[in-house]
Specification:
The structure is a single chain. The chain has about 350 residues and is α/β, with parallel strands linked by helices. Helices cover about 45% and strands about 15% of the residues. It contains twelve helices and eleven strands. α3 links the parallel β5 and β6. α2 crosses α3, α4 packs parallel to α7 and α6 runs parallel beside α10. The chain is globular. About 40% of the residues are buried. The chain binds nicotinamide-adenine-dinucleotide (NAD) and zinc ion (ZN). Zinc ion binds next to α9.
Amino acid sequence: MIIHSRLKDYTVHIEENLDFLLNLPKENVQFVIDRKVYDLYEKYFDSVPKDRLILLDATEENKILDTALAICEKMTEIPAKRNMQLISVGGGITQDLTGFVANILYRGIKWIFVPTTLLAACDSCIGGKTSLNYKKYKNLLGTFYPPDEIHICARFFDTLSEGDYKSGLGEVVKFNIMEGEDGLKKMENNIASLLTREKEKINQFVLSSLTYKKKFIEVDEFDRGERIKLNFAHTFGHAVEVVSNYAIPHGTAVAMGMIMADGLSCKRGLLDEEMIKRSEKILLQIIDIDSTVLDVDMEHFIKAVRKDKKQTDSAMTAVLRTKQDLTIVKDMTEEEVIYAVQYFKDLYQRKHLLLRRR
Ligand SMILES: NC(=O)c1ccc[n+]([C@@H]2O[C@H](COP(=O)([O-])OP(=O)(O)OC[C@H]3O[C@@H](n4cnc5c(N)ncnc54)[C@H](O)[C@@H]3O)[C@@H](O)[C@H]2O)c1
Ligand SMILES: [Zn+2]
């Protein structure tokens, strides 16, 4: 797959097995690898010289400017400035940090990214966004700088924790639900195989997710118009992340955000109940959370919605589903936010009551 970007065209390769790692360039290269991934897949990196290897603790606390600068400093030791490359292997945290470094070092160097989480593979690896946290602000600093090459191999997902795997599924389900009836049907037919991590299915859905996202980023690379629709479920999702203190991973928060957004769509008469029930049935299979995380003061939640980067003025904005498409509503009220959260809580509670009765 080729992604056209105003910065550079870049390619996505789907790899059958991990042997491609052995063929990655080694000359004038700095590897930055998620420490957990390195420990699990060390034998594939045997031939990387130790002085060309940085291991990264993939935590939000580490996704900061200081870490980026430390990588830059280490890279000044490589003599060939013009031909140097960065190869990063890891999830979204590794991607955000190394993309930022590749962009600012010598005003941009070549960069290869190997996503090792489902979330990074099906979504964040394309689109070119890089983000760092600053003080208490998540993703406050950032640029646009896509990699030159992306190599995706579903074998990496075998070792993901259940929580991180299901978080990735959150974004997969989001792309399909956004597509409408056809996407929803595809999800209904395949969610069981995805939950058991069937490689062929994963590859199929990673590709269809990226194909769907590609349409938006190619027409609105810098997120000024049409791309905002990809923010479906994220206004609520980001607020869930904030009030849970980031204990809920991104894709899971997005899955919860979808239920909230759809609850609101239904209330506004934008979407049929039948369609919503079908999506909820899928979404509830990938959401496993401590239900007390939403027992927060709603003022705190609303404040988090208002702080979302996509909000532009005092009225609240959200992307909602309609029968045919998606719509951007710019007049979401506080009562509606409270309604949507309560809608999710009631539904989630009912799921647990049912499970307990079995
Ligand atoms: N740039 C973008 O467009 C974009 C989009 C969405 C999210 N993000 C960012 O991505 C981050 C979340 O990324 P993520 O969910 O991909 O995960 P992550 O990088 O936070 O990794 C999640 C966990 O999985 C571990 N891990 C990674 N690969 C593994 C593997 N193959 N086997 C076992 N463990 C593995 C990591 O060490 C970590 O503990 C957030 O910081 C978010 O802000 C960026
Ligand atoms: Zn997302």
